[in-house]
């Protein structure tokens, strides 16, 4: 098939590369304000994506270019960020007059409910257009795997030919068992918001339980195991920590809450989910505040992990940013390390804030001379440190474990004070 993917995200790059890898002729069109080099830089921490891009480009099946390219295709896939709705509308107006043959519009972008139908109407005013709403469930850090081995493919479509075309497009990823579910376009849009809201609710719930566990002298890990063993609940997204981040969860929960308010539906639960999450982002600050008797002035802390989750360079809504700001406001100093997100982290701070931050080349360098290590993002490189060497290099051996990846007894036995979440 001739496919055009319009996007500015790593997910768009993934969709374009994978579909080209299965034999399609794909063009990825970027907005005017995004260079190909910058998008590729964002994708470097995504396992396997750069080699895949290079392979399909060498084979001549993928072209990455700017949006003023020829708009000739059978399938148009919108995979832009939620803030790009205006671009999507302008593209639809251009697609409408770019040809007369029927086309398929696949909207993977998370726009407000009902937007996809409005986009289709802009094209259908000039040429036949079938709409498919396909919520984007690609997970950063495992983008290729989550797209090529999906647990589900949700298609919001009311046209049989459109559904069959999508089934053919996704046949290479739907062989083991049929994971395609067909619903209405609006049901697909709402499902995306509801999914992220449910997952966010689980995270905020276990963080509330972690606070209660800590107050009661209980290790929340034992509670988590007990909850997860119940098959009605399960283990996924039931890890206490310093809150969820990223470009989707908080934005989608907030947008769903606003939609509920517009429809006259109470959104108390979702409001509480967001409030709990924002409070949780400063959990390590509060633990350090108490540990050092409410005086952090002149203290130096190592922040391990800055991205909102492992295997991404993004710090959008990441807990590291508000945590750093809270520490800097108390005249503390920071040495930070992250395998991919240091530049994005610095860009999120003000010029004044950056004067209190040093970027380290290694986790050990960040910890040297510090008054405590704050584990914020659980990159694999942080799981098995040399505890003896760390203790020798630090001024005050304290671990603030924001993801509960360490065994408290082992850390304490190595001569550290240990503070986890709910432990």
Describe the overall structure.
Helix 10 (249-262) runs antiparallel to helix 11. Strands 3-2-1-4-5-6 form a 6-stranded parallel β-sheet, with helices on both faces. Strands 11-10-9-12-13-14 form a 6-stranded parallel β-sheet. Strand 5 (103-107), helix 5 and strand 6 (129-133) form a beta-alpha-beta unit. The chain has helices at residues 10-21, 36-43, 49-58, 85-96, 115-124, 143-148, 160-169, 185-215, 220-228, 249-262, 268-280, 283-291, 320-329, 342-348, 351-354, 363-367, 387-393, 408-413; strands at residues 2-7, 25-30, 62-66, 75-79, 103-107, 129-133, 153-156, 180-183, 300-304, 333-337, 357-359, 373-375, 398-401, 417-419. The protein is α/β, with parallel strands linked by helices and 423 residues long. The protein is globular and about 70 Å long. It is 43% helix and 15% strand. The protein has 18 helices and 14 strands. It has 3 domains: 2-183, NAD(P)-binding Rossmann-like Domain (Rossmann fold), CATH 3.40.50; 191-279, N-(1-d-carboxylethyl)-l-norvaline Dehydrogenase, domain 2 (Orthogonal Bundle), CATH 1.10.1040; 281-419, NAD(P)-binding Rossmann-like Domain (Rossmann fold, 3-Layer(aba) Sandwich), CATH 3.40.50.720.
Helix and strand topology:
Elements: E1 2-7, H1 10-21, E2 25-30, H2 36-43, H3 49-58, E3 62-66, E4 75-79, H4 85-96, E5 103-107, H5 115-124, E6 129-133, H6 143-148, E7 153-156, H7 160-169, E8 180-183, H8 185-215, H9 220-228, H10 249-262, H11 268-280, H12 283-291, E9 300-304, H13 320-329, E10 333-337, H14 342-348, H15 351-354, E11 357-359, H16 363-367, E12 373-375, H17 387-393, E13 398-401, H18 408-413, E14 417-419
Parallel strand pairs: 1-2, 1-4, 2-3, 4-5, 5-6, 7-8, 9-10, 9-12, 10-11, 12-13, 13-14
